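Protein modeling request. Please complete all fields; requests missing the sequence field cannot be processed.
Requester role: graduate student
Desired output: 3D structure, token encoding
Chains: 1
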Amino acid sequence: MKILIFGFTKVKFMPYANFYLENIGTPKNDIHLLYWNRDLKQEDLSAYEGITFHEFGCYQEDDVSKLSKISSFLKYRTFAKKVIKQGDYDLLIGLHSLPAVLIYDVIKKKFKNKFIFDYRDSTYEGFAPFKKLVGGLVKTSSATFVSSNGFRRFLPESEKAKIYTSHNLLTDSLSHRDEKRLNGTKSDKIRIAFWGFIRHEEVNREIINKIAKDDRFELHYYGREQQVALNLKQYAKEIDAKNVFFHGEYKPEDRYEFVRNTDLIHNLYYDSNMMLAMGNKYYDGAVFRIPQLCMTGSFMGECAEKAGIGFQCSPYSESFIRDVYNYFTNLDAEIFDNNCDNELSHILEEYNSSKEVLKNV
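Delivered output (361 residues):
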């Protein structure tokens, strides 16, 4: 079978693509991957054997208005349609709703029940025509995978029988589960760490402002630095935040190094999409047995608290620092580790069920 997986960013920023790449098997299938090189910098893809890549090269900053991206989106649509037309594919796998919406006409016309839809972003659901197109994609698909059960509310109830949960689990992490336990470093500070693309300036300003006033803590950011990160670095400098550090972009395998130096995971987001999402760091917390901080009232926070692997809090609360300190210092390590093991077992059970669904398709 000839399969095209199409995404909306560079390969290294699409770790969720691994769920498909690991489970459709290149010896059996001819796998193609279309990706968007947004910064026009070369990416090392040598680790991916047996995959044919199609690079859409077009410079585009992420943290700019949606309207300013329209021209780039249309160029992506043209490129994707050309790749599909020339490739004569048997199956399409769309990572994210936006790129799938951009070629909805092609999918509906030529790939009914020959399309897998990966839904992981509700940013545009407030726009009724967009939501309608998303519903059409679900109906056209042979299977739809959601990265968070919180997103199911946006999808057609009539199609729930073919909607499955696909966790953002990086299976390579499982072989490094004891990284912190065996190689973790000690510190007299409580080290809070964020890793990933640094966004959401307002809430991070609030966190930096609170942490900077309490020398019991350190705050570390690991991730690519576009305008939001640069603004936050400048803000930290302006308020003389000596316990806030920015470490820059990293490779996926670098996570194991800074996991050793992390006491709490910063998993705090505050927008309509992320209040429903399940981020990669949720799974990192369960795998590496590191407690995480989640936004009060978020779907991820409710899951973390219910599983006993994290704490719901709000950086906007006057008691934020006190609440975080009390949570961390009162943790029972043995109970917490058992909770992580139980949650990971539940995640793997659902993950493996989704693998079977994918193989059947």
